[in-house]
Amino acid sequence: MSSESKLREQICILSKSMFERGLTGGSTGNVSARTEDGGLLVSPTGTSFGRLDPARLSRFDANGVLIDGDKPTKEMPLHSAFYDSRPETGAVVHLHSTYCVALSMLPGVDADNFLPALTPYGIMRLGKVKMLPFFLPGDDAMGDAVRALNGTRKAVMLANHGPVVADKDIDTACSAIEEMEETAKLAVITQGMKPRGLTEDDVQNLVTRFNVDWDV
Ligand SMILES: O=C(CO)COP(=O)(O)O
Ligand SMILES: [Zn+2]
Questions:
Q1: Environment class of residue 67 by beta-carbon count within 10 Å: exposed (0-12), middle (13-18) or buried (19+)?
Q2: What is the CATH number of the domain that holds 9?
């Protein structure tokens, strides 16, 4: 099997797994991944993560020209902004996951540091997460907001909408966005219970040991 065929399969298997575990419902969410030739494979607009077809993914060439497949997600400006501003990006994943969205709606959320420091992996996998304001789905302004971060953040939260994570490959990006949802879930279910989070020292030790983008 060619590397592109393998990547097509991998995108669909990982997306289906997330759909089946309730991480994004209906026909929400979108995903993209770099191919070896510098192009992109992208989930088509209006499709369910549970039923992505490897043969119908939208395919772009290295110049960003749509080559074949179905019409791509309306969130292309958002995905492109990550590839352009973080050249190490090999995949971008966006979900409508319940606890991230719930947390984005609660009072007192720090937009510059969306996820509270509760667990080591929340920090190691995501770095500091920026919450962006609400935008209409597909709005070019979302991409502009990501570009304005100058590549400093791998993960953003779209308020009242859903998380977006860029990482080196599709597997890593999916693991990271799952960690984002798990951390948001912990934050929401312990809301008002005065949970004992990680200390500033714990966070700094994690940042140093695991080379996390943090002081940005
Ligand atoms: O999550 C979505 C929009 O933010 C889904 O849109 P698409 O079906 O166009 O990917
Ligand atoms: Zn969305």
A1: exposed
A2: 3.40.225.10
